[in-house]
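WARN no homologs supplied; continuing
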Amino acid sequence: MRVFLIGISCVGKTTIGISLAERLGYQFFDLDVEIERFFGTSIERLQNQFFTMHSFRSEAAEALVHILNRPDSRDCVIALPPSGLMGGYLRAVKKAGGVTIVLNDKPENILERITFYDIDSRPIEKKLSAEEKRLYLREIKKDITYFRKTYERATLQIDISGLDADGAAQKIKETVEEIRKQAVGWEKSEQSAAMDG
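OK structure emitted
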């Protein structure tokens, strides 16, 4: 089963995804890292080559398709970017099938995890002033509002407020296992009905 994690920047998709993949015994892919590997350049430099984010997503989705065509991606966890349920990404996810899970957290918690990178995706140490924190918190809230409608496309949304990465991964694992049990039960009933008919 493929598990796609979606959420706004710094919600914890990568950290939680790694922990979730270990718990499930699955391969983990961070799509941002895979896009940079596939195209041989940083996300920001690649984005700068496109006039719109839609055209960037269409091109970047090629890296996702590449992952999904790999044999080791049959059972995997993939951390998607915030726009992971839009454009080319959405088309690839729908075609591949799997469970799409949006990670939701309080804006204040996301602000605590905010990370900055240079144009070549190298982390930058940055101490935020009180005013900068206020501005970034406002931007996080805007992102949550902006993506809210898009995230309704997901299989489910999980609130990770108050959980560390391992706690969130365990909560998601339990949900994924329940979905998997239901899918197996549905397949068995379908097979049984086909044999009876």
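Residues 27 and 71 are 11 Å apart (CA to CA).
OK
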